[in-house]
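Why do we bother with holo predictions? Because pocket geometry can differ from the apo form. Keep that in mind while you read this record for calcium ion.
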Amino acid sequence: MLTKCRDPQVIAHRGMSSLAPENTLAAFRLCAEHGVTRFELDVDLLADGTVIVLHDSTLDRTTNRTGAYHELSRADLGRIDAGSWFSPEFAGEPVPTLDQVVDLMNENGLDANVELKVRRVPAAQQRALVTAVARDLDRLDPDRDVLISSFSPLLLHEFRRVVPGARIGILFENKRMNGLWHSVGLMLDAAALHPSDSTVTRKSVRRFREAGYEVNVYTVNSRERAEQLAEWGVTGVFTDRAQDFPEDWRA
Ligand code: G3P
Ligand code: CA
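The structure, written out:
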């Protein structure tokens, strides 16, 4: 019976996001420097089919520009500074594209969790994100590992259709998934469940693990809490502070 996970792992949430601007190449590069094997990133689509790495649906919080970005194209990215808001040291740090991240992963031997951002747009537009992400990830070296996650079962279902061998993680933020995780997990042939730290319980972790899923909890910045979750049997935690964790958590 699966309850205790002996080697839980940190997943650097948006990269080393307390040391560098989140979701940038600088934040992902720091993972390699700190011996952190896996990072998380958020992806969305520009008008020309370029997949970019950004958490929010606008540029307001994490760049020197404002407004939505979905109508922009790759050429526009050069005019956007995604580093200065964090620190002058990172001035000019670009909003990365997924294909740049793929190169960085190949060069540094890093693994990732790619989160497909949810947009309230027609299904065809949502599918376009899946197709573009699958295209970019196809350039990964065969020994790299990627977990695809989303709050949208529709996007995950589409990803499973496009990439039959994909490893899927289902994100859920509240108890809404309490009655659904089992059937949605089976439907998607998911590898992992990603519950929020605010809702996860010892009992739910036990159920998820007994059903055979990896359990990665977001977002856990306290070592003490991470140790408790490990004791409950989780396989990983998303954290903004991967540098605080011992080596065996980072590998
Ligand atoms: O994947 C875990 C976590 O990143 C989900 O929430 O809002 O940080 O993307 P959010
Ligand atoms: Ca995310």
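DSSP finds eight helices and nine strands in the chain.
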